[in-house]
Write a structure and sequence with these properties.
A: MetI-like fold, 79% helix, B: mainly alpha, MetI-like fold
């Protein structure tokens, strides 16, 4: 470890970390925004569910590097434009989260839905106040997975020149210099850990009832 | 779309289909890294998953190690190992195995844990050994989930095997890396398309394999008893 490198490159490391956070987390937020309405529709109309599952599986099986490269051709953006990464990862996040949202909403039992209607919840209030909260554990499980996956996937973008902390890997590799690689790894794992803790904490806060009477 | 014409040109060029840098060679190299890494990952993860699933011990530990491993950036693992151990296939395999192990452990564990305890009690009551229970009861019942774990491990490995080219190995990543070096966008795109096609092919193979090896009764395809009408409307997807 070369600690001098660390101090003299603090600005660079901060920049790359910021870029990494941006590239990894903006897609999660956008993906969730896409997944909520689509997941809601596929949960409501049972006929849409199987095609949605298939589409989500196909989208998720396309390698990230492929999407990073295909988008400039489709969107007309530059190959080195970070937007490509954001769009590609948004598609991943969306594809996965649609499933979580739909599965979560589908897990709401009919009795619960009917009871809610019976005590006077009209449709949209029932969806927001009853069904969505019950689906939250599913959605959060998806969010955790997608967030950690995105944080490690962003690094691959360094192969085509934009990869947040991944650039520390390519930089260290080209110069046979360990320090940037180790710094990149540590920050990337820490980032994933912090993001995961933040999501779990939010989930605990939003779904206090899941802890009642359970040991885990 | 100009780029589509260029992409088509890439695939239409007969020189691309032969020799050391040809598409068939690159596809085989890519498949070779994938198969090797998946086999090693399975050899490590499957026994661990079965063991912690059967005994229920060490689950917290294994799952958390798995989650931590999942947050390791493969590119970082790869370049670090190459700098430590030199160029070669080992660093690539280690990076890919690190990627493949967590989903296999997690799904095997979940599959075995999900076996109805009454079924296991019945097996034990009939005098099956613990070994027999693991291999003849838990493994077959957990198979759909195990396969879904293997499938997602395979997909992640095949996608990530692209990075092998970054450390001077072959595979489809060569097109991406070489194309980038000379700003040949069509070549990069061709590499990406080939990786995506390979991923889809692997997905299909797993789906077919799953149909062949998963017990009919488990997959809801049992010919002997027709299922009650209420159940037939639920989806029989087990992925």
């Amino acid at each position: 470890m070369d600690w001098d490198w660390l101090t003299s490159n603090r600005a660079l490391i901060t920049d790359l970390l910021t870029q990494h956070v941006y590239l990894a987390l903006v897609p999660v937020a956008l993906g969730l925004a896409l997944a909520l309405p689509i997941g809601f529709l596929t949960a409501r109309f049972a006929r849409l569910y199987p095609p949605m599952l298939a589409a989500s599986a196909v989208l998720y099986s396309i390698p990230s590097i492929a999407l990073f490269i295909v988008f400039p051709g489709i969107l007309g953006t530059q190959i080195l434009d970070p937007i490509n990464i954001v769009v590609a990862l948004t598609i991943y996040a969306g594809a996965l989260l649609v499933r979580s949202v739909a599965d979560g909403l589908r897990s709401v039992s009919d009795q619960v839905r009917q009871s809610a209607t019976a005590v006077g919840y009209e449709r949209w209030r029932r969806v927001l106040k009853i069904e969505l909260p019950i689906a939250l554990p599913f959605i959060f499980a998806g969010l955790r997975f997608v967030t950690v996956a995105n944080i490690s996937m962003v690094s691959v973008g360094a192969l085509i020149g934009i990869g947040g902390l991944g650039q520390l890997f390519t930089d260290g590799f080209q110069r046979s210099f360990f320090t940037p690689i180790i710094v990149g790894m540590v920050l990337s794992v820490l980032l994933a850990l912090c993001a995961d803790i933040a999501i779990v904490t939010t989930q605990r806060f939003l779904t206090p009832w899941t802890r009642a009477g359970r040991t885990t | 779309m100009n780029i589509l014409a260029e992409l088509f040109g890439f695939f239409a060029d007969p020189l691309r289909w032969s020799g050391a840098g040809g598409i068939p060679t690159r596809v085989l190299e890519h498949l070779w890294y994938t198969a090797l890494a998946l086999t090693i990952a399975t050899a490590i993860a499957l026994p661990i998953g079965l063991l912690i699933g059967h005994t229920g011990r060490g689950a917290f530990f294994a799952i958390n190690i798995g989650n931590a491993a999942r947050s390791f950036p493969s590119l970082g693992v790869l370049v670090l190992l190459v700098l430590l151990a030199g160029l070669g296939i080992t660093p690539v395999l280690v990076a890919l195995v690190v990627l493949g192990v967590p989903p296999i452990i997690a799904s095997t564990y979940a599959g075995v844990r999900g076996v109805d305890p009454a079924t296991i009690d019945a097996a034990r009551g009939m005098g099956m050994t613990e070994r027999g229970i693991v291999f003849k009861v838990e493994l077959p019942i957990a198979l759909p989930l195990i396969l879904s774990g293997l499938r997602s491990a395979a997909l992640q490995i095949v996608a990530t095997a692209t990075i092998a080219a970054y450390v001077a190995l072959g595979g489809l990543g060569r097109y991406v890396i070489d194309g980038l070096a000379v700003r040949d966008f069509a070549e990069m795109l061709a590499g990406a398309v080939l990786v995506a096609l390979l991923a889809i092919a692997i997905d299909v193979v797993f789906a077919i394999f799953g149909r062949l090896v998963v017990s009919d009764g488990l997959a809801g395809r049992g010919p002997r008893n027709s299922r009650p009408a209420t159940e037939s409307t639920t989806d029989q997807e087990y992925v």
